[in-house]
Amino acid sequence: MDAVLWIVLGVVLAVAEIFTATLFLIMFAVGAFAAAGAAALGAPVAVQAVVFAAVSALTVLAARPVIQRHKQTAMESGDTAFGIEAIEGSTALVLERVDSDQGMVKIDGEVWSARAYDATQVLAPGERVQVIQVKGAVALVWRDVATPGELPESER
Q1: Dist. CA 50–CA 61, nearest whole Å
Q2: What sections of the protein cross the membrane (predicted)?
Q3: What does residue 136 show for φ and ψ, rounded to 5 degrees?
């Protein structure tokens, strides 16, 4: 019966990993499956718990540094940026007044909620801004200090 409980825990952790995509919970799932193996061999519950903890810890210690070493941004790897990484650093057009509390900008033809990155800045409609960071669905923008000029057609 103990083996079944460990297997259920391992499956739950593996399924949870699918939704988090952190490659962290899967390491504990491996520990749960190892504990299930110990339970199937007749080990007492205390030994099963030690196997779970030891295998999980070893998996984290062995795999996490490798994952971190291979994790690169698109900029570092030379790939084309996508998602938030592609938006950060791009130019936008202020559609509605942007301050520290509210605002709207157009980034690559899409309308985004925006806030001023610097709380003292107030950006008027028609101004060009630089997207500094994206937090959730809000772009944090900064007044573009480049020479004023026409925006590309896609940003109008």
Answers
A1: 16
A2: 7-35, 41-63
A3: 65, -120
- Paired with 113 in beta bridges are 104, 138
* Angle CA 14–16–20, to nearest 5: 115
| pLDDT, tens digit (0-9, with 9 covering 90-100), for 22-61 | 788 999 999 999 999 999 999 999 999 999 999 999 999 9
**150: in domain:** no
Contact 63, 23 (CB under 8 A): yes
Q: Give the DSSP H or E segment for 19.
A: helix 2-20
Q: Are strands 138-143 and 110-116 parallel, antiparallel or unpaired?
A: parallel
Task: List the domain range (segments joined by +) for residue 126.
Answer: 84-143
3-state SS class at 104: strand
pTM of the model: 0.48
Phi, psi of 106 (to 5 degrees): -115, 120
Q: Is 91 helix (H, G, I), strand (E, B) or coil?
A: strand
Number of domains within the chain? 2
d(CA 148, CA 72): 34
